[in-house]
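Key result, reporting period 2: structure in, sequence out.
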């Protein structure tokens, strides 16, 4: 029996109105879609921000990579930034487009000399469509690239060593500044070239074949200013050359380059008075010995050819180098100095007048440094610098002024003389050193000054300056450079950098590289040219004759006529090579 009641007090089941369930499900779907869209937006924004950060890093490095390479005849405009004097103009108008990974070379002077395979930069893997603009040139050969990478004709990828895309910096980039007159650079390839800093005696010869075929580097040569990079001298050691940097460091070389450094070593004694050491600076700033002249072994990385006023260093690792030395007992060694006398160029309008005498190394670079300094101070060189041999005797350098007309002039010097301490001069790390003689005239009507200045090492050699000048006239600058001295361009690229044509070079190498039972091979050529101090260095090279000819080029860059080389070959009986030299050369 069924019982029925009225639907009251919640006893009856409620039913939803038609269409209510559809609205609920629709709302849930819309909310889910909005959540997905918001998540996508957040992801896109984060991705773009990350890409923008990576792109900023890559742009800096790619610009550093591509800024270095231009055609051989390209001359960039002068820039205000002293760190990048050869910075190129905007290359967008003539740029090609390269899609794919970048490659970098290992950095550091202590890198392994063995070739290291190039690897893709991990920062560029997520960006396969990144466009990198590279300079378009039809005068430079193409690069060696992996099989899966292609470049259109004339496009060049810069392989300048820059570390990990702007993260790592070369130590020397912080310490070296490319100042006008103290640096030079050029883009060199397989044909080689020569970098020369005019009026300094510093140069870098890059022989043909040194740079791998298809590769191009912006090579630089810098003289480090003494207040920025100091080569320390330990104990009785003395600095004998400027500190020079060449690079880029870490680049792979197929054969040695030749770095030429001027020095102030006195070498005309019959017995050796010097122990000479070549030093290099690491990326951490420490100095290490590379070799000691006369103590070379098969493991020595360099060869040093010592001449009267300069040395030529054959090396396969670019970096920062300098020459130091110390006396070899029992005789004390001597170093060559220059004494340079300067006075104000402008007419003297006051009662006071001063003369400055500099004591500097007898090298072209040291004199150029002082001339530039005095030019900025308004000074002028009164006469040619005088040479002075400074002996390792612990005696100071004494300077005094004499024969002043006391009726018209008075010296403000209280003592009879001034002295420069021995160690300040001998160390070679404190320069330029100078003394000032301050004078006072009796009245403005006095215009003529005549006196004598004596400079000598106590118990050693000395020099005398005889001065006669009109201080109320504008003094004309005196040029210490000989009028007939050759002025080499700062950079020479390709065959124009070498005196010996490539055809003659190949003939000589083919004739002398193979050992001869009669000894008429590259060893006899080394003896004839005076390069036989350590023959084992040349014996380890694939072409000993080629390295000897590279050294000959460096030693005769200013006067490299072929007569001296032809004479050596004639004495060896190499008539077949002489015929080629007479036909193709300038003998």
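The corresponding designed sequence is given below.
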């Amino acid at each position: 029996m069924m019982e029925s009641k009225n639907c009251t007090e919640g006893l009856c089941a409620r039913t939803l109105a038609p269409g209510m369930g559809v609205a609920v499900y629709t709302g849930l779907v819309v909310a889910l879609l909005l959540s997905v869209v918001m998540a996508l937006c957040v992801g896109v924004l984060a991705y773009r921000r990350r890409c923008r950060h990576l792109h900023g890093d890559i742009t800096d490095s790619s610009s550093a990579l591509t800024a270095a390479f231009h055609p051989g005849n390209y001359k960039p405009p002068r820039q205000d930034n002293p760190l990048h004097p050869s910075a190129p103009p905007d290359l967008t108008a003539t740029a090609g487009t390269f899609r794919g990974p970048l490659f970098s070379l290992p950095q550091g002077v202590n890198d392994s000399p063995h070739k290291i395979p190039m690897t893709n930069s991990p920062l560029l893997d997520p960006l396969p469509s990144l466009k990198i603009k590279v300079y378009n040139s039809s005068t430079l050969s193409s690069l060696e690239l992996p099989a899966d990478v292609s470049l259109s004709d004339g496009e060049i990828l810069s392989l300048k060593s820059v570390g990990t895309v702007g993260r790592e910096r070369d130590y020397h980039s912080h310490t070296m500044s490319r100042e006008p007159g103290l640096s030079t650079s050029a883009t060199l390839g397989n044909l080689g070239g020569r970098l020369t800093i005019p009026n300094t005696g510093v140069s870098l010869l890059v022989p043909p074949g040194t740079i791998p075929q298809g590769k191009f580097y912006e090579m630089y040569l810098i003289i480090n200013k003494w207040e920025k990079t100091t080569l320390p001298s330990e104990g009785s050691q003395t600095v004998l050359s400027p500190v020079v940097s060449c690079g880029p460091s870490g680049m792979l070389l197929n054969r040695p380059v030749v770095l030429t450094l001027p020095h102030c070593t006195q070498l005309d004694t019959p017995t050796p008075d010097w122990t000479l050491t070549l030093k290099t600076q690491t990326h951490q700033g420490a100095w290490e010995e590379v070799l000691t002249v006369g103590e070379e072994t098969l493991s020595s990385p360099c060869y040093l050819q010592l001449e009267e006023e300069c040395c030529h260093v054959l090396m396969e690792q670019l970096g920062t180098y300098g020459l130091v030395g110390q006396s070899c007992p029992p005789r004390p060694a001597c170093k060559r100095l220059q004494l340079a006398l300067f006075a104000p160029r402008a007419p003297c309008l006051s009662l006071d007048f001063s003369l400055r005498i500099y004591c500097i190394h007898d090298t072209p670079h040291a004199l150029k440094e002082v001339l530039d300094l005095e030019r900025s101070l308004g000074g002028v060189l009164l006469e040619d610098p005088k040479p002075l041999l400074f002996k390792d005797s612990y005696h100071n350098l004494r300077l005094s002024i004499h024969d002043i007309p006391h009726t018209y002039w008075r010296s403000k010097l209280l003592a009879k003389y001034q002295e420069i301490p021995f160690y300040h001069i001998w160390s070679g790390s404190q320069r330029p050193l100078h003394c000032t003689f301050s004078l006072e005239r009796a009245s403005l009507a006095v215009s003529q000054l005549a006196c004598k200045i004596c400079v000598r090492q106590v118990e050693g050699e000395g020099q005398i300056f005889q001065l006669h000048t009109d201080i109320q006239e504008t003094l004309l600058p005196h040029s210490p450079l000989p009028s007939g001295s050759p002025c080499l361009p700062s950079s020479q690229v390709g065959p124009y950098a070498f005196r010996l044509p490539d055809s003659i070079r190949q003939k000589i190498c083919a004739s002398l590289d193979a050992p001869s039972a009669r000894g008429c091979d590259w060893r006899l050529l080394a003896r004839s040219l005076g390069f036989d101090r350590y023959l084992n260095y040349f014996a380890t090279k694939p072409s000993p004759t080629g390295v000897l000819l590279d050294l000959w080029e460096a030693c005769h860059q200013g006067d490299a006529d072929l007569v001296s080389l032809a004479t050596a070959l004639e004495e060896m009986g190499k008539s077949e090579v002489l015929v080629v030299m007479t036909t193709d050369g300038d003998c």
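The chain has ten helices and 25 strands. Confidence is low (pLDDT under 50) at residues 54-176. This case is discussed further under Risks and Mitigation.
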